[in-house]
Amino acid sequence: MSKGPDSVDGNREAARFAGLRFDDFRRMATDPSLNMYEKIGFPKGFREGHEAAIFADILSKMRVLHKPGQRILDVGPGCSELPQLLINHCLKQGHELILLDAQEMLDMLPDGQGIAKVCGRFPDACPDLTPHVADGVDGIIVYSVLQHVFLEANPFVFLDALMALLRPGGYLLLGDVPNVSKRHRFLSSDAGIAYHQAYLRTDGLPEVKINQIEHGRITDAIVLGLVDRARTAGFDAFILPQPDELPMANRREDILIRRP
């Protein structure tokens, strides 16, 4: 059996990457002992063999990616296969692609026509981004990033800055958001208990915390608050599930925002 997100070894590996911040990723990017998935904060078993399906899900939600000649911003692309898939797609579609991340991450991604690499942390430490987005963008991808922003910045300020960049009809995907409330709901269900027992090979019940403050973790209150923030600002916003075949679909979800 592979090491899934709730296996004993999987949980131990995941604990290695808890609480990561922007500067941690800069350090990890140049650590030769880490593979490409570990450099972006995931145990290998959580991403290896799954990134094509992840990208297919992104394509299904970000309709703007199917229109030729768009301007796309990826905030925190990392250095695994996923940004490579996006780069290849954008080259085929004739998109202008802007990759915003730490220089150490960007150095591991290929160059290409129509690709701009911008070093910095969004939104307060990336002055070189301004010339690339002065008249807005058509699509923004922020995948597996929000939980790290949450640890060291205000997620609502982060969202406001992203929405300010969207052109009319533009899409913003806050993807792969770990929602601990969703996780607790799943582990409280018959399906979740069976999943937990199968992975841990135990007859015990999973530990579920209800009505408790989750310090440093995203909950329903944050997810729903971000959706409300976007709608109050005049945007359409939706909470979308991930396909069941994605490795962490039982505890993660996506927030899709569109400027009318």
Low confidence ranges: 6-10
Highest-level CATH class of the domain at 51-181 and 217-258: Alpha Beta
Helix/strand order, N-terminal first: HHHHHEHEHEHEHHEHHHEE
What gross morphology would you assign? globular
Biggest sheet strand line-up: 3-2-1-4-5-7-6
Annotated CATH topology of the domain at 51-181 and 217-258: Rossmann fold
Major sheet description = 7 strands, mixed
Number of strands: 7
Strand content: 15-25%
Helicity level, as a percent range?
40-55%
| Alpha carbon gyration radius | 18 Å
By secondary-structure content and strand pairing, the structural class works out as alpha/beta
The number of distinct helices, counting runs of at least 4 residues, comes to: 13
Could you tell me the mean pLDDT? 90
Distance between the termini: 46 Å
What is the compact description of this entry?
40% of the residues lie in helices and 19% in strands. With 260 residues, the chain is of the alpha/beta class. The chain is globular.
Question: How would you characterize the overall build of this protein?
Answer:
Helices cover 40% and strands 19% of the residues. It has a domain at 51-181 and 217-258: 3-Layer(aba) Sandwich (Rossmann fold), CATH 3.40.50.150. The longest helix has 13 residues, at 81-93. The chain is globular and about 55 Å long. The protein has 260 residues and is of the alpha/beta class. The protein contains 13 helices and 7 strands. A 7-stranded mixed sheet has the order 3-2-1-4-5-7-6, with helices on both faces. Helix 5 (51-61) crosses helix 6 and helix 10 runs parallel beside helix 13 (220-232).
